[in-house]
Amino acid sequence: MTLKLLSVASECAPFVKTGGLADVVGALGRVVGAHDVECRVLLPLYRQIAHLASGAKEALNVGSHFGGPVRVLEKRESGIDLLLIDAPHLYDRPGQIYLNESGVDWADNHLRFGLLGWLGAEIGRTGIAGWMPDVIHAHDWQAGLAPVYLRQAAGAAPPCVLTIHNIAFQGNFPATTMGTLGLDPKGFTQDGFEYFGQISFLKGGLTQADQITTVSPTYARELMTPEFGMGLEGVLMARKADLSGILNGIDMVAWDPATDPALAQNYTSRTLAKRAVNKQAVLDHFGLGPDTSAPLFSVISRLSEQKGLDLALQALPAILEKGARFVLLGSGTPELEHGFRQLAARFPSSVGVEIGFNEDLAHLMQAGADATLVPSRFEPCGLTQLCAMRYGTVPIVSVTGGLADTVIDANEAALAAGCATGLQFAPTTAEKLGAALDRAMAIYADRTAWQKIQRNGMKHPVGWDVSAQRMADIYNNLAGA
Q1: Which residue in 100, 104, 147, 359 is a FRET match for 317, CA 20 to 30 A apart?
Q2: Which residues define the annotated binding site for ADP-alpha-D-glucose?
């Protein structure tokens, strides 16, 4: 019997994306079908994806709610069954999906994502166009109120699983918004959605969901410590028996160097020499000249303190002075953007920087760089290192979260055994990152050893096969199937 799953999320690739959350929601929407799970994704119809309304069918008309008219449209697109929340007063606006044109959170984000959780709960309880979900899967704080609304409503309700993609973002709002959100004041307690006098969407979800997952085994353990729990470690310790760490995967079709249309040259683990064409294309894009013999390091990332890229700014000059090259694609805090621009100005023939994001360029950089840096201070799972390994780019990562779970360090024993897939360093300091970069330079000089690491990474399981089955098992256990 096929299990019916409602996935509730604020973003979903390939439609709307600000980070890895979208990639995971989009991938799960497709891959769980192979495990006898029929998934529909409930997603706000932002202005950025308004074109998806074309050809969509109205599945539910809520009337006026949360300040304006609300309806739900259904459409299948890119292999995903979408339920699109058409609420123009909340979603039809410029700027980013969470931020206004000044880069500040929309003042009514509590309503915008309160509606997402409320609709998730309503569809869970009453169904939509004759379709009734067996399980609800809520993602991050934006969907955190779905299990809260389910609990406070009368009558039967399906079980709910909540996934923490990044606990640093919690959806905390003034207690005065409780009434407009339609929340029962009885839930404003230490064991409910109250968090230091505010409403916390994420805490509400953590206390009311039937099961909690996060995106790697190590991050699941880290979340129960003060260093990584961001004030919610006590809540998670209390729910320890219901918390699972399940590694994210990547889309093995979208990320396939043998067929990727964004590459200058396709290749496989048996034709690694062809990567040189992509390396030259990356160098050309950044205006760095024709020499492909020097090691090319890269960063493809949001520029933030979490990502540890201030450490990269400190560590990179030493290897650049030894002949290495470096390219960066990303955007974030003005200080880090300025810092990398200054690095490029200091090393104009060795460093290329592009502030912003370009999906095709990200693919090309994974296919053309020799190594990629992921020096995060914390990293729930990380997808960059998975894509890097798939493309034969050697990841250099800090020992935290999913980075620790997915990369096998090229220490002496691993090199001798022929099983290394990248380089790790700890603790997360500029000095230790610099030592890892030096190690990478030394191994790169041994082409046989370097290519063995590349091929190991390309063979490493980075898809959804195992994790999708684990998620399907959780859904079936919750549904009593």
Answers
A1: 359
A2: 17
